[in-house]
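Q: Given only this backbone (71 positions), what sequence would you predict?
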């Protein structure tokens, strides 16, 4: 399961390289962000906001619950 906190931090600090999208399982979008430096910053900003409000989720479903079982 993916962590929302990790995804948000990756988007903030490495979003221009698409690392957040690779982490969430969206390889195609990760490559696009990598080649355009985060959509010239626009896509990176949008991704940070979407992760923080919860509308951008991992490709395989939901984020891991806080303090929950990690198995």
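A: Predicted residues:
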């Amino acid at each position: 399961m993916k962590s929302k906190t990790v995804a948000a931090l990756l988007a903030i600090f490495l979003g221009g390289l698409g690392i957040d999208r690779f982490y969430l399982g969206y390889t195609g979008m990760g490559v696009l962000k990598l080649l355009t430096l985060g959509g010239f910053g626009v896509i990176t900003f949008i991704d940070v906001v979407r992760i923080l409000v919860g509308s951008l989720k991992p490709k395989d479903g939901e984020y891991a619950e806080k303090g929950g079982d990690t198995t």
